[in-house]
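Form 7-S
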Amino acid sequence: MDFITNDGFVIKNSDLTFPQILPKSYAYCSDTLYDETIIDIIKNIDLLYHEATFLSSEKNRANETCHSTAEDAATIAKKANVKKLLIGHFSARYRSSDVLLKEASLVFANTIAAEDGLEIEV
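Output:
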């Protein structure tokens, strides 16, 4: 709403204010099995960190240890319509996160892998 002085001079609201800064959102899901009940809680967030401890070929091991696969993380991200997925909490059995990143990216393209020193602006 514009401001009108006592003598009728109009000062535009846009001259008095800054454009709205939209809030940013982030969720952290780790040490968890695949669980679609979180989808409504994290729907449309800017950044989702989700563990991707195993490849889907190790789904049984993931279930035994209450962890998720890279495919699980990507599926949650896709169903929740998040903007970006950051995967991490990788099993030491993988020498590189590349295979986990590849698996997740096949389901959810905007995926990156956590690494020491990584900084992300949300």
